[in-house]
Amino acid sequence: MSVENYIVLACVLFTLGAIGVLVRRNAIVVFMSIELMLNAANLAFVAFARMNGNLDGQVIAFFVMVVAAAEVVVGLAIIVTVYRSRRSASIDEPNLLKY
Amino acid sequence: MTPDVMPAPSIDYIALLPYILVGAAGVIGVIVEAFVGRGARRPIQLVLVFGSLIGAFVILVVNRATQGIQAEGALAIDGPGILFMGLILLLSILVALLMAERQLDPAGDAFAPRASALPGSEDERELTVRGYFQTEIWPLFLFSVFGMMLFVTASNLLVLFIALEIMSLPLYLMAGMSRRRRLLSQEAALKYFILGAFSSAFLLFGIALLYGYAGSVEFSAIADALAAEPGQTALVVGGTALLAVGLLFKIGAVPFHAWVPDVYQGSPAPVTAFMAAAVKVAAFGALFRVMYVALGGVRWDWEPLLWIIAGLTMLFGSVVAIAQTDIKRMIAYSSIAQAGFILIGVSTATAQGLYASIFYLVAYGFTTIGIFAIISMVRLSGGEVTRLDQWAGLGKRSPVVATSFAIFMFALAGFPLTSGFIAKFLVFESALAVDNLGLVIVGVIASVMAAFFYIRVVVIMFFREPVEGAPAAAVPSATTTLALAISVAVTVILGILPEPVINLIEQAGVFLR
Q1: Domain contains A94
Q2: Is the residue at B93 inside a domain?
Q3: Fewer C-beta within 10 Å: chain A N or C terminus?
Q4: Residue A48 lies in a domain
Q5: CA B276 – CA B283 distance, rounded (Å)
Q6: Which of B176, B198, B205 sits opposite A21 (nearest CB)?
Q7: Which H or E run contains B76?
Q8: Do A31 and B191 touch (CB under 8 A)?
């Protein structure tokens, strides 16, 4: 199977993640969609590493995983705090700040 | 294994000392939080913060002649990089002075005693009564500054991404730590986090595409690949666009500005000052380096795009700010408009544009910190008073504070004898030097519209009768006073005597690659 297919798959996953962020209401699901986007980028990095014949992309994928883990820590802390004070994880409900 | 299979990297630790100092102080700060008693934490954290920031700045100034690509091509410590880092450190020191304030709020400082306590709960009241204070914000602040220093000197797209996250993740938390109006603050943190993570995913995918094109993430390798193969492919165009989305989000340029007003309004005033001043400097520093060094070969593609974005950003920020009734939101929209003016400098793709933008960032950064110092001072018992109509008559009750605020408003509007005038002049001049008359005309129209709402604030403060129960400016402690005095001084001096600073900026030379 050619490397190009993986790139196409990465683009599809990235787009799915982006659509998920835009249409889903639950903060946790939105957050999962963002993780999907990051992992789509990882797939692209690994596929490009194969295509370019060097290891940079594979190493970058590891760094991205670490960053994604740190992002989960911070993100869940914020989402759980908001959930505790509002009893809801919907991202449409916090709407005190507008206009 | 023979030594030449995997040679040890050569790292010049002396050149990296400013980074090490700030990063290590942040790590020590975390350890202090874990092991030192509650009462002793604040003095230790303050020593760590001010010691490391001032120390890093001094080392940077002393070592300014040692320039070069450091850490195996990861960091480019060059003239513009040192300028950006120095500016970030100076602005951070001022922000730290605002954060250390403890006299304005009767309950203590601007931050919730424990960010995890439910707003309005028994728990939170007890923590306040017992006099507990948030000191975890200091290490978070240092990590963010550390990330910014890496961000403006990153010479490789991977370091750029990591630095962006080191800078942003603590900021998301800091946005949610306000002592007053906790629900607004938490909402700001949630919005900032979701949108920030969304935009950094775009940035990362852009990096992946550029890596696919060039086979390397080093800026110099990407520039070489573009020079060797001028016919651009979809990978370069797509990668550049996605990368720009991530960076323009941090800058707050239209159409990636949606988070700015909400986050600026909800966050505690010192944190907003940090976001408006230092983060903007860092994001512009990174944008300049990426666009000039790595993607200079395709500048015919990104220049027109930046013209459009700069024009839209200036016009949108200026128009929407007119309709605002909340002072923090008005400043937020004004900061969007200011970002548009700085983008003019980026879009010229010349060294003159770079210098003009750096001067603009100096002027804008100090003015903004002064503005938020004053916003944190105008308050009633329930917290800051940000409704614009309640500021009526402030000039009578607190003439010194109101006059300082008027100076900042004139500076943002670009009146002569303030730093804002020189900054706008330099930026427009750099655009005219590349024959971009259209953008200058849009910029002038936007400044005229913006002048309306800046002057309106001055009119409200000085020429309108105060409303019932209107606030006066509280008397701050020495730290806020110092930060405010420095901001006023820089704003005025840069307006009257800009030459020394302009000369300093022009000595910076160009980006190394």
Answers
A1: no
A2: yes
A3: N
A4: yes
A5: 11
A6: B198
A7: strand B75-77
A8: no
Residue B487 carries which DSSP code? H
Average pLDDT of span A7-19 = 96
Nearest to A81 among B186, B197, B266 (CB): B186
Asked if pLDDT for residue B115 goes beyond 80, the answer is: yes
Cβ separation B158–A70 shorter than 8 A:
no
In three-state secondary structure terms, B420 is helix
* Alpha carbon distance B460, B24 (integer Å): 47
| Residue B496 belongs to a domain | yes
Residue A92 within any structural domain of the chain: no
Helix axis angle, B351-377 to B499-506, nearest 10°: 130
Amino acid at B47: V
Interface with B, mutate which of A35, A51, A52, A78 (most B CBs under 10 A): A78
Beta strands B68-70 and B75-77 are antiparallel
User: Does any CB of chain B come closer than 8 Å to the CB of residue A61?
Assistant: no
Domain tally, chain A? 1
Check A85 against B183: CB less than 8 A apart: yes
Per-residue model confidence as pLDDT tens digits over A47-82: 999 998 899 999 999 999 999 999 999 999 999 999
Look at chain B and report how many structural domains it folds into: 1
- DSSP state letter for B9: P
Q: pLDDT tens for residues B236-254?
A: 999 999 999 999 999 999 8
Residue B306 belongs to a domain: yes
Q: Can you tell me the distance from the alpha carbon of B500 to that of A34, in angstroms, rounded to the nearest whole number? A: 46
B77 contacts B275 by C-beta, under 8 angstroms: no
Contact B207 A41 (CB under 8 A): yes
First to last CA, chain B: 32
Which candidate from B187, B207, B211 shows the least CB-CB separation from A97? B187
Domain that holds residue A16: 3-86
How many other CB atoms are there within 10 angstroms of residue B438's CB atom?
A: 11
Q: Is residue B10 part of a domain?
A: no
Of B172, B186, B207, the CB nearest to A74: B172
For residue B378, pLDDT beyond 70? yes
Let me know if residue A27 belongs to a domain: yes
The Cα–Cα gap between B427 and B424 comes to: 5
Backbone angles phi, psi at B189, to 5 degrees: -60, -45
Kindly list the distances between the CA atom of residue B240 and the CA atoms of B80, B232, B234, B480, in Å, as whole numbers in the listed order. Answer: 22, 11, 10, 41
Question: What domain range is B328 assigned to?
Answer: 17-506
